[in-house]
Amino acid sequence: MRLRNKPWAVKLVQEHPESVLDRPDPEKQIDWSQRFADCSRPLEIEVGSGKGHFITTLAEQNPDKNFVALELQVTAAGMILRTKLEKKLDNLQILCADAADITSFFAVNRADTLYLNFSDPWPKTKHEKRRLTYKTFLEKYKKILKPEGQIEFKTDNSGLFSYSVASMNNYGMHFDFVSVDLHHENEEIVAMNIETEYEHKFAAKGNPIYALHADFGVE
Predict the structure, then answer these.
(1) Which end of the chain has fewer CB atoms < 10 Å from its terminal CB, N or C?
(2) Is 156 among the residues known to form the active site?
(3) What are the tens digits of pLDDT across the range 112-161?
C-alpha cells in the first residue's frame, strides 16, 4: 500500500544519514560495521517494513541483535525513523531501497533471519516475478542468509500464501512451521507473535492470518 507523501518524513530522513541509507548505490558495498556498534551480533532483516511497528518492536525486545528495515517508500522510512529515534534503537538501521537489489547490500551468508510480512500479493499472473516469494527472490535470500538462516512469512492473502508454499517447496526449502490461522494457534505461539499494523487491521476483521517459517537446509 502506497502511503501519502509526508514532507516531515522526507525531511527527517534527510537529517539522519547515520540511521537511514536512502537509495544507496547498489554498485557500492555497504560497510555495516560502520552502521552498528557491534557487527558481530546476529542480523535480522525485514523486507517491506511499512510503518515499522513490527521491526521496531523486535529491535526493542532484542537489544542483543542487529536489525535492518528494508523499505522502498521514503515516507514509510521516515515513520520508522521517528520511532527509532523516540525509542533510541541503536540496533536498528533503515535501508530505503528496492528489495530486488538486496544481494548488493548484504554479503553472502550475512543474515540470520529474513522477515516477509504482508507483502504485495501482485495477483495478476503477468506480475508473478514481482512477488517477494518468486524463485528469483528466493535465490537472492539464499545468498545473503546463513546456511541455517530462516525466512519468516506472514500474509492475510490466501492466494499469495498458497503460491509461496508452492514456490518454496519447488525451490527445495524445508518448512519448520506452517499455519493457516496464526492467531488461533497455541498460546505460546500467539504470545510470541508481533503484529504488524496491517495484521492488526486484518485480524480485527476476522481474517485468518497465514504464516510459515522455512529454511534452505544445509547442503
Answers:
(1) C
(2) no
(3) 999 999 999 999 999 999 999 999 999 999 999 999 999 999 999 999 99
